[in-house]
Amino acid sequence: MVIQLDRQIKPPDFEVEIPTSQMQPDNNYIDWRELTLPDNLASGDYTLQPVVYQWQDNTRLTLADGRDTLPIQTIVIE
């Protein structure tokens, strides 16, 4: 892991964040994050993969197939 940004979900059109405890199954949630990469980050391929967890006990929420991460995109740093 190179960088992480912990925060509750905050859809672009909402004024408040949504706590994990208020998320409902079978709903889609849109979130916006800006990541600041370290200046000394080595060139290479990096995979973006969000994790959703309950901050009270660090329990990761899982997908239907049991995974607790969802690789969404690989980016190339040159």
Secondary structure elements and pairings:
Elements: E1 44-48, E2 53-54, E3 59-60, E4 73-77
Defining traits:
two-stranded antiparallel ribbon; single chain; mainly beta; 78 residues; globular; two-stranded antiparallel sheet
Describe this structure in words.
With 78 residues, the chain is mainly beta. The chain is 0% helix and 18% strand. It has no helices and 4 strands. It is globular.
Outline of this structure?
The protein is mainly β. Helices cover 0% and strands 18% of the residues. The two termini are 18 Å apart.
Q: How many angstroms separate the termini?
A: 18 Å
**Major sheet attributes:** 2 strands, antiparallel
Main structural class: mainly beta
**Measured on Cα atoms, how large is the radius of gyration?**
14 Å
Question: Which H/E pattern describes the elements?
Answer: EEEE
Q: Number of DSSP strands?
A: 4
User: What share of residues is helical?
Assistant: under 10%
Oligomer: single chain
Shape: globular
Number of helices: 0
- Residue-averaged pLDDT: 89
Low-confidence stretches: none
Q: How large is the share of residues in beta strands? A: 15-25%
The largest beta-sheet arranges its strands as 1-4
